[in-house]
Amino acid sequence: MEAGSVPVFQWSVNLFKAVSMQKYQYHLFICMNKRSDDDSRGCCFSRGAEEILITFKKEIKKRGLKGKIRANRAGCLDACAFGPSVVIYPEGIWYTVKTREDALEVIEEHLVKGKTIERLLMSRPWARG
Ligand code: FES
User: Fold this and answer.
1) Does ligand 1 lie within 6 Å of residue 33's CB atom?
2) Residue 125 · residue 119 · CB < 8 Å
3) How far is it, in rounded angstroms, from Cα 106 to Cα 123?
4) Phi, psi values for residue 4, rounded to 5°
5) Please, what's the largest Cα pairwise distance for the chain?
6) Which residue from 37, 61, 92, 122 puts its CA 20 to 30 A from 11's CA?
7) Shortest-distance Cα residue to atom 1 of ligand 1
8) What's the pTM value of the predicted model, to 2 decimals?
């Protein structure tokens, strides 16, 4: 072990604490940014983000997942052209969720079954986290 480096044991302890102290199993951020109609960048809000957020919140509650999974509204996630933008942690997976049905699929496949949904992955190199 080199001076100044974190001992392997301490590193493992820190990692365990970080994992075990994670408050939610999954934490979703849904962009709700709204821009004026004449803004060429567009926005997730105008693409239906509000219905997506409502669907996530209602379905999480309906399935008794509140406390394990949290869906939060977010400001611009800097992926405006690919929205409505949804990012899921801890993996850091980015989805383009355009419809209520897409949101329900994210809940069932990703949040309940733990599967990444290829067809909804945002078409960006970092979408897989
Ligand atoms: S407006 Fe949603 S990512 Fe920028």
Assistant:
1) yes
2) no
3) 16
4) 90, -15
5) 59
6) 92
7) 43
8) 0.84
